[in-house]
Structure formats: structure tokens, C-alpha cells
Amino acid sequence: MSAAAAATPVLSATGRRKTAVARVTLTEGSGTITINGRPFEDYLATLQLQNTVLAPLQTVNATNRYDVNVSVKGSGLQAQAGAIRLGIARALTISDAELRKELKPHGFLRRDPRMKERKKAGRPGARKRFQFSKR
Questions:
Q1: Residue closest to 115 by CA, chosen among 14, 20, 15, 13
Q2: Which of 35, 67, 91, 93 is the most exposed place for a label (fewest CB within 10 A)?
Q3: What contacts 51, CB < 8 A, 6 or more positions away?
Q4: What is the pLDDT of residues 79-117, one digit of tens each?
Q5: Residue 24: pLDDT above 70?
Q6: Total structural domains in the chain?
Q7: Residues 66 and 26: beta-carbon distance below 8 Å
Q8: For residues 116-135, average pLDDT
Q9: Are the beta carbons of 69 and 27 closer than 8 angstroms?
């Protein structure tokens, strides 16, 4: 490991959404985003998902200041994007506590508590009931 690499601060944080878990690492750089070893645009194909991930960086004007490396697993792409967004926001607050004031009003530091409801015994799903037959 070179002296320049050791001097570069590495910020890491975890974001979760539904069953998705994202481990985010921020390093000083040019703004490249890598998700599971793939370019950010390839992994998240739609513009909506890309904007979800970029939102905390754009809020604090840091899109080209950090390289973002993400390892994410579980759930679907929408939940993974939400987990990545939370992880990036948490890592940014570790780098500078003053950024918390900018990120908090937008809800980037809040973990979304909504989860899938569990299936109940004697039913086909969480709430659905089996078809009732009178005769």
C-alpha cells in the first residue's frame, strides 16, 4: 500500500431497505460509482433509480468529489437503490458532521421502516383468506 493511498480517507457506512443491505465505501476521487463491480449506469438502468442514488451527493454538491464503491445484496432494485442512498448519506455525515443539516430535511438519513408483512397460519398470504364456499 502506497503512502498516497494510506493518506486518502476511506469512509464506509451501511444502508438498509426492506431486505436489501448496501455496504458503501467513499474515497476521495473523480466521482465514479461502482455497484457490485459493475458501472453504476449498467446496474441501475432507469433514470429514476440513478437519481435516487445520486440525490444525497447532489444535495451537498459532492458528485465529483468522491468515488463510491458499493456492495449490495438482497431484495429488488428499488430497495437496493434506497439502501445505497442511505449508505451514501451516512458516509457523507461521517466525513463532515455539518452535512447532516443539509441531508436530514430531505429524509436521506431516515431508514425506511416498511417491510413485507409475514404470512399468517391458515391463510394463503399475510391478509388474504382462502375462498369461502357456502355450499
A1: 20
A2: 67
A3: none
A4: 999 999 999 999 999 988 999 999 999 999 999 999 999
A5: yes
A6: 1
A7: yes
A8: 94
A9: yes
User: Is residue 31 situated within a structural domain?
Assistant: yes
* Amino acid type, 92: L
Q: Give residue 81's Cα distance to chain centre.
A: 5
Question: How many C-beta atoms surround the C-beta of residue 64 within 10 A?
Answer: 11
CATH code, 30: 3.30.230.10
Residue 29 covered by a domain: yes
Q: Can you give the C-alpha Rg of the chain in angstroms?
A: 19
Question: Which range marks the domain in which residue 47 is found?
Answer: 3-106
Is 120 within a domain? no
